[in-house]
Sequence to fold (185 residues):
Amino acid sequence: MSSPRRRIETDVMKLMSDYEVTLVNDNMQEFYVRFKGPTETPFEGGTWKIHVELPDQYPYKSPSIGFVNRIFHPNIDELSGSVCLDVINQTWSPMFDMINIFEVFLPQLLRYPNPTDPLNGEAAAMMIKDPKNYEVKVKEYVQKYAGKDAADEAGAESSDDDDMSSVGSFGDDEDEQPAGRLDDV
Fold:
């Protein structure tokens, strides 16, 4: 069992050298990464907080990733932040690592959306029928939900930095407020 654990540590440490990574409860299998929109796209200038969970079988089983702050994109569910990306969902390989996700897969997804396989039907339809307005709406979302401080504030009402455990485990403490839903963000 030490091999997958070592691989997780190696991949997360590599990611930390290039990205701002916040571990949840000092656990290398659950963390947040600050991700910036690729240049020369309508997502440029945006910063997203990406929630990452690595399964025990990583790298043989793909990581689970999701956008915490909102984004308007055909292949990303606006409320849950789920990502529809074949390379993560179907064609994942142990040869890939976390850096591939943040340097290749996510930038490619934002650069080249696939409106024929949508998780956000409104974004897909708008991208096909009215590309100019699609771009305007993407930029509005970037300004509104992915501005300079938005990634820090995303999900803040469900936890604070001292106690991020409420994000991952609901109901640990009966007196605790229920964690905020993503659509409250």
Q: What stands out?
A: Strands lie at 21-24, 27-36, 47-53, 64-67. The domain at 2-165 is CATH 3.10.110.10 (Ubiquitin Conjugating Enzyme).
